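Hi support team,

I'm filing this because I wasn't sure whether my run with calcium ion finished correctly. The job status page said complete, but I'd like someone to confirm that the output block is well-formed before I use it downstream. Pasting the exact inputs I used:
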Amino acid sequence: MTEARWMKEPRAGRRRTTARIAGVRGCLFPDGGAEPVAPKSPPPARDTFQRLSDCRSPAMERPVPPPLLVSRLLVSEQPFEVTLTETVLCWQPLRPKKASSSGTGHLSVPVCDIVAVCETEEDGIGKESGRWQKMPSFSTDLTLHAFTVYHVQRSKEHHWECNEVTFHCSDHLLCNQWVKALKEQLDLQAMRPKHLIIFINPFGGKRLGKQIYDDKVAPLFQLACITADVIVTERANHARDHLIEADLEKYDGIVSVGGDGMFSEVMHGLISRTQKNSGIDENYPTAELVPCDLRIGIIPAGSTDCICYATVGTNDPITSALHIIIGDSQPIDVSSVHHKHMFLKYSVSLLGYGFYGDTLIDSEKNRWMGPSRYNFSGFKTFLSHHCYEGAVSFLPATETPGSPRDPKPCTAGCHICKYSGDQLKVSQKAMKLKCIDEEQQQWKVVKGKFLAINSTNMSCACPKSPKGLSPAAHLADGTIDLILVHKCSRLNFLRHLIRHTNNDDQFDHAFVEVHRVKEFKFTPKYCDEEDTDIQDVGKNLFGQICRDHPSCSCAQHQSSWNCDGEIIKHAAIEVRVHCQLLKLFVRGIEK
Ligand SMILES: CCCCCCCCCCCCC/C=C/[C@@H](O)[C@H](CO)NC(=O)CCCCCCCCCCCCCCC
Ligand SMILES: Nc1ncnc2c1ncn2[C@@H]1O[C@H](COP(=O)(O)OP(=O)(O)OP(=O)(O)O)[C@@H](O)[C@H]1O
Ligand SMILES: [Ca+2]
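And here is everything the job wrote out:
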C-alpha cells in the first residue's frame, strides 16, 4: 500500500544517479530480518594489477561471492532488492517494468568504487533545501531513515564523477545495519589513504591551484574522511625542502596541487629523502636507488599537466581526487640525470633538448602569459629552427618486450609493465655481474645535427598532444623512448609536430628515429670551456673539434634540457632509468 508524501529534493552538488528517493518500510530477508553479516578478516593490501580485477562489474568473469546483507529498500520510488557482498553493492528492481528512469534493470557499484556512506536523516518535511516534491511511501511513520552511498561514476573520456544514491527505509535499525556493513567493507580497503600532506602551488598554470583545491578537492576528501595537512607554498622549492626534513611517518601519501614543475619538486623531495634515509649517494650515477614508499597524488592545476594526463587520461581535478580517495596505486619509472658524476635531476615525463629546451627557456621569460606562453615560445622556437650537433650514445632495452612503434598504448593493469618490470629488475642484477666490456659492446652511438632530442619515460600525452610524444611508451617497464629528430626543413619539422596532435605516426619520417633504451648519454659537439673533459670526449667522438666548421650551418651554441618543465643548465648529460621507483595515486589509462 503506497501513500503520497511530500519531500524536498536534495541540494545540488554531487550528482545523484537516482534523482528522487522514496521511503519504504524495510522488508527483510528471509522473514523480515536482514541476512547475517559474516565477520571477515581484512584482505591484504593489493596493488593496481590485483585490484583492477576486483573493481569490475559483478557480471564479469569473477565468481559472485556470498551476500553479506540483503534487504528490500526503496530507491527512486521503486522497491529494490539490495545486496551487499565483499566486492559489490547491487540493487535489483522488484518491479522490473518500473525500473530506474535510465531503463537499467540492475544497478551495481563495486565496493572499491564507493567513496563514502552516510546516514541521511530525512523526515516527511525533509532536512535538505530544495524544491518540494510528491513522493510515495509504504509507511504512515513520518520519520524516514535513509543512507546515501557516494561512489565513482565514469563519464566521458576517462573522467570520473562522484555520484550518490540514497536508499530509504523506515526502520532505523535496518538503516544502521546497512551503514555499519558498508563502512566495514570500506575499512577493509587497505590501500586507501587516511592522512595526507598536500602542497598547493598558488602560482601554477592559471593561478587557480588554491581555488581548485578548496572548491573541488577538499569537499571530496572531507566526505571520504581523509584528513590533510595543507601547505600553500610561498616560494619555489618550498615543498621539496619541506619533504626532505619533515616527519613523513604519519602520512599515507603526498599530494601536489599544481603542474608538472610542482610535481617535480614534490618528487625530488620524496626521492631524495628516501635515498638519504637509506644512505644512498644520489651523485653516484649507477647507484641502485631505493623505491619510495609514499604515493604521490597529482591534482592538476598547471599549464601542461602532462604527468597527470599521461597517467589518468585527463587533467580533471575531481577525477584525480577520486583516484586518490579510492587508493589507486601505479608504479612509474624515473630517470636520473647526471653530469660528470654530479646528480642534476630526476625526470618522469619529458627530457627534451633542442626544440623543447629552447621553448621552455623562452617561455620562462613570459610566465605572465600563463599557459599560452608555451604556444608563443613554441612558435618562436619553431621559426628560429636551430639545430644542435652532438653524439647520442644509448644502451638499447633488449630484454623488454614491446617497441616504441607498437600500435597499442600502455593501459591500466598493463602486462608489459607488470611482467617486464619484474624481469628487468632481475636482469639488471644479472647485468652487474657481467664484465664492463660486454656491456660497453651493446652501446650504440648516433652522431649528427638534431632539431630535437626527446627522451620520454611515459607517453607524454597532454591536452595539446592527446597521444603524446611517444604513444606506446610504458609507465613502468623500466625503459625510456629516445626520439632523435635530425636536421630537416621547417616544413618537414612542422609535419612532424602536427603528428603530435593527430593519429598519424610521428615516427614515420626519414629524419626521425626512435629507440627504446635503458640509458643514454648526450655529448654536444660544442661545449662550455669549463667542460674540458667533455671536450676530450667530444674529440674522441667527432675527431678534432672545429669551432669554425665551414660546412656547418648550425650555430655553435648549446641548447638546454627541458626536464619535466624545469631547465637543466648542462648540455652534456647521462641518463639512466630506474624501474618503478615511484608510485602515484593513479591506475594508468583505463581502456
Ligand atoms: C602546428 C601545431 C603543432 C603543435 C605541436 C604541439 C606539440 C605539443 C607537445 C607537447 C608535449 C609536452 C610534453 C611535456 C612537457 C612537460 O614536461 C613540460 C612541463 O609541463 N611542458 C612543456 O615543456 C611545454 C611544452 C609545450 C610545447 C608547445 C609547443 C607548441 C609548438 C607550436 C609550434 C607552432 C608552429 C606553427 C607554424 C605555423
Ligand atoms: N609559491 C611559489 N612561488 C613561486 N614559484 C613556485 C611556488 N610554488 C611552486 N613554485 C614553482 O613554480 C613552478 C611552476 O609550477 P607548476 O608546475 O605548478 O606550474 P606550470 O609551470 O604553470 O605548469 P606545467 O609545469 O604543467 O607546465 C615550479 O617549478 C615550482 O617549483
Ligand atoms: Ca617507461
